[in-house]
């Protein structure tokens, strides 16, 4: 989800991304309604990769993430209202969180003031999501992902493969990853623009679902790395991405702009109280303060 605030009025704009649902999904509409009820005077904009809801939902699993992010950059940059906003706020659910972060790093026009993510895979996934027993299509694609995650087809067409990160095979990850290794600035040659754009955030709040079994490891929501053998958790602050400040996370933390929040329940089991608190904390209070 992304929101934009005008300095001359209380008009706000919110952009929402949600995994495996189209921008027309009923769940997204209800979140927009709750947002409007909570902070008022809000127009909600739902990011879409295709105007057709069915094709938009398909694009959450099939597509080249690099091209998808560029489309979002182009759409927001040319939007008749958003493009004129001095700043926007962003709320991303699940994989939408790291996609919105990629927007900040690569484009950030209009600029994001507050970025809030729920259950996102900022440090990737080490296992692909399980499928329902009778979901043969899901099982077929999962077989392709497990069998050839680093192949050109998977890295250019299957979205989960593009944020797959096996800590036991970082060599392949750094060589073949189409998306995550780039936006996390993990390769030898760093992109300074990514870091500078992230440093422009007013706040970056990351929510991890306490009982998340869909995202493996769930601690990826906090940029933590988990040893797949011992399950030992290495926190962000103990990793080179933080210590050498590859994407500005240490800067944000030292400026007290980086927040780690825990949400009760499993993956995407969002309560109205959790959302309302986030809206008030990151969108209403700070935006109102800037307007007064």
What is this entry, summarized?
With 292 residues, this protein is α/β, with parallel strands linked by helices.
List the helices and strands and how they pair.
Blueprint: E1 2-5, E2 12-17, H1 26-39, E3 42-46, H2 53-58, H3 65-78, E4 87-93, H4 95-106, E5 112-118, H5 136-147, H6 152-157, H7 170-176, H8 180-183, H9 192-198, E6 203-209, E7 225-226, E8 233-234, H10 240-243, H11 249-254, E9 258-263, H12 272-291
Parallel strand pairs: 2-3, 2-4, 4-5, 5-6, 6-9
Antiparallel strand pairs: 1-2, 1-4, 7-8
Helix pairs in contact: 1-12, 3-4, 4-9
Q: What key attributes describe this structure?
A:
292 residues, alpha/beta, 7-stranded mixed sheet, two-stranded antiparallel ribbon, 9 strands, 16% strand, disordered N terminus, disordered C terminus
Would you kindly provide a written description of the structure presented here, covering whatever features stand out?
By secondary structure, the protein is an alpha/beta fold. 38% of the residues lie in helices and 16% in strands. The protein is built from twelve helices and nine strands. The strands form two sheets. Strands 1, 2, 3, 4, 5, 6 and 9 form a seven-stranded mixed sheet that branches. A two-stranded antiparallel sheet has the order 7-8. The longest helix has 20 residues, at 272-291. The chain starts with a strand and ends with a helix.
């Amino acid at each position: 989800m992304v929101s934009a605030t005008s300095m001359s009025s209380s008009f706000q704009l919110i952009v929402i991304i949600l995994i495996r649902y189209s921008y027309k999904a009923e769940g997204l509409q209800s979140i927009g309604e709750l947002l409007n009820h909570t902070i008022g005077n809000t127009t909600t904009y739902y990011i879409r990769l295709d105007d057709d809801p069915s094709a938009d939902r398909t694009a959450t699993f099939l597509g080249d993430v690099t091209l998808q992010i560029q489309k979002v950059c182009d759409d927001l940059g040319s939007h008749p209202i958003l493009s004129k906003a001095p700043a926007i706020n962003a709320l991303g659910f699940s994989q939408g969180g790291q996609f919105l972060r990629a927007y900040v790093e690569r484009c950030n026009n209009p600029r994001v003031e507050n970025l809030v993510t729920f259950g996102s895979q900022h440090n990737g996934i080490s296992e692909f999501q399980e499928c329902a027993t009778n979901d043969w299509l899901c099982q077929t694609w999962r077989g392709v992902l497990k069998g050839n995650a680093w192949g050109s087809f998977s890295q250019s067409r299957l979205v989960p493969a593009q944020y797959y990160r096996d800590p036991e095979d970082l060599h392949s990850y750094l060589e073949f990853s189409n998306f995550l290794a780039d936006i996390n600035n993990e390769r030898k040659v760093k992109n300074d623009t990514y870091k500078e754009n992230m440093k422009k955030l007013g706040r970056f709040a990351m929510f991890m679902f306490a009982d998340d079994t869909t995202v493996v490891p769930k601690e990826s929501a906090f940029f933590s790395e988990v040893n797949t053998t011992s399950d030992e958790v290495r926190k962000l602050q103990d990793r080179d991405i933080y210590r050498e400040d590859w994407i500005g996370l240490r800067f944000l933390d030292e400026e007290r702009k980086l927040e780690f929040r825990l949400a009760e329940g499993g993956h995407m089991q969002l309560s109205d109280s959790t959302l309302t608190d986030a809206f008030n904390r990151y969108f209403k209070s700070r935006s109102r303060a800037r307007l007064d």
